[in-house]
Recover the amino acids of this structure.
């Protein structure tokens, strides 16, 4: 289940890569990332795979506050929330009309993974053993993450992060699992360094 | 003495729930029509699935099922809310596992899952051995498969049906409760499985559509 949590981890790092992607190289990215205090965004996730005639659409929102507070929330179709605060990560799911803690081993493994996320928030994008990151400038900025080692073998082929060059706003993220399966996340209402209530990282509802 | 009586009552209740229930003949002359919630056309269904053990929620996943009742083709996928595919397989009719991540890569998981999907969505294969009514008045038809297993399909009017599977010896293995809406017979499914560790799946329909394979 640690592998599964690494996927969630991959979602988190996207924001810090893109938010700091003005830089020409990863050393500069590390410096820029230090200026990011908060991030918030809405997202639409489109899951594509052979068994689906049309993409499965999910919607949600994301919050981050330095140094280590996260909230990654799906609003539909399956309501779920991951909250990480002061090194403590919990996942909640809708059960009988209420949010209940996910007790699966995946949720346990996430605590380990989110400790890694903290390193990424400090701009150490190219120092994580799980991915090799490259940055390509063109009409837009494209950041590519390639898994290395066995952690993600058979899980992810690569992650492509597309950023608008002028505004540096996150446009989309494509997680390619195989030739028949991919997840595309499109972001909107991205806010950097805007105030976020502490309750966002504390209250589940 | 009270304790002994209570124990006997509980044992009796447990026995009545875990073995084949008695079927009473219908009073009407004509042969009753068997309840049939099963799919008639190729369909694609997407459910939110909540996994429970010992009454406690363990986790939630999304399940995609593609079925063609005419060819018995079954394809299914399990993914996380994040869209990560944990398991994908098809039976056409031979079982082919396309992807299986831990813990879905263990033992007979794929075969058992396909059997559960067929049990929920396809009419039982075998001979009808009995038709009639349960003691509570619900209509029931009982099938027996080639391997001797029993499958009861029960109509609890107006909007609920049940599919119960028993071993050849009459011990229950699966209990499935379907709560239909006007739109779909599979709007809400509750599957209870008797395994080494009993578990329940609470399935809530997200999308359903006709499918062309």
């Amino acid at each position: 289940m640690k592998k599964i949590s690494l996927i969630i981890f991959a979602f988190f790092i996207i924001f810090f890569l893109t938010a700091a992607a003005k830089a020409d190289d990863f050393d500069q990215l590390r410096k820029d990332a230090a200026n990011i205090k908060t991030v918030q965004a809405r997202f639409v996730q489109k899951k594509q795979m052979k068994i689906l005639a049309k993409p499965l659409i999910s919607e949600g929102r994301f919050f981050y506050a330095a140094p280590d507070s996260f909230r990654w929330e799906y609003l539909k179709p399956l309501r779920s929330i991951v909250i990480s605060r002061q090194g403590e990560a919990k996942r909640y799911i809708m059960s009988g009309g209420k949010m209940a803690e996910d007790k699966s081993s995946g949720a346990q493994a996430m605590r380990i993974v989110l400790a890694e996320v903290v390193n990424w928030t400090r701009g150490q994008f190219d120092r994580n053993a799980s991915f090799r990151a490259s940055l390509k400038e063109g009409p837009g900025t494209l950041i590519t993450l390639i898994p290395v080692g066995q952690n993600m073998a058979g899980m992810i082929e690569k992650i492509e992060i597309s950023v608008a060059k002028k505004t540096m706003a996150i446009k989309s993220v494509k997680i390619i699992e195989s030739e028949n399966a991919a997840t595309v996340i499109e972001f909107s209402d991205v806010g950097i360094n805007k105030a976020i209530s502490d309750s966002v990282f504390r209250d589940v509802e | 003495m009270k304790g002994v009586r209570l124990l006997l009552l509980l044992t009796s209740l447990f026995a009545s729930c875990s073995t084949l229930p008695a079927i009473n003949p219908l009073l009407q002359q004509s042969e009753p029509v068997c309840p049939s919630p099963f799919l008639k056309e190729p369909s694609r269904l997407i459910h939110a699935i909540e996994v429970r053990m010992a009454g406690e929620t363990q986790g939630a996943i999304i399940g995609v099922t593609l079925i063609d009742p005419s060819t018995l083709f079954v394809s299914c996928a399990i993914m996380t809310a994040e869209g990560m595919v944990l398991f994908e397989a098809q039976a056409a009719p031979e079982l082919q596992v396309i992807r299986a991540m831990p813990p879905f890569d263990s033992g007979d998981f794929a075969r058992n899952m396909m059997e559960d999907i067929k049990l929920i969505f396809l009419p039982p294969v075998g001979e009808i051995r009995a038709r009639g009514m349960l003691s509570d008045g619900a209509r029931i038809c009982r099938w027996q498969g080639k391997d001797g297993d029993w499958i009861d399909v029960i109509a609890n009017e107006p909007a609920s049906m049940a599919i119960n599977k028993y071993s050849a010896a009459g011990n229950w293995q699966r209990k499935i409760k379907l709560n239909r809406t006007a739109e779909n017979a599979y709007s809400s499914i509750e599957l209870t499985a008797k395994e080494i560790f009993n578990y329940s799946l609470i399935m809530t329909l997200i999308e359903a559509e006709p499918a062309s394979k």
In short: Chain A touches chain B at residues 1, 3-4, 7-8, 11, 45, 47, 49, 51-53, 56, 58, 74, 77-78, 80, 93-95, 100-107, 154-155, 175, 177-178, 181, 183 (CB under 8 Å). Residues 89 and 198 of chain A are 15 Å apart (CA to CA).
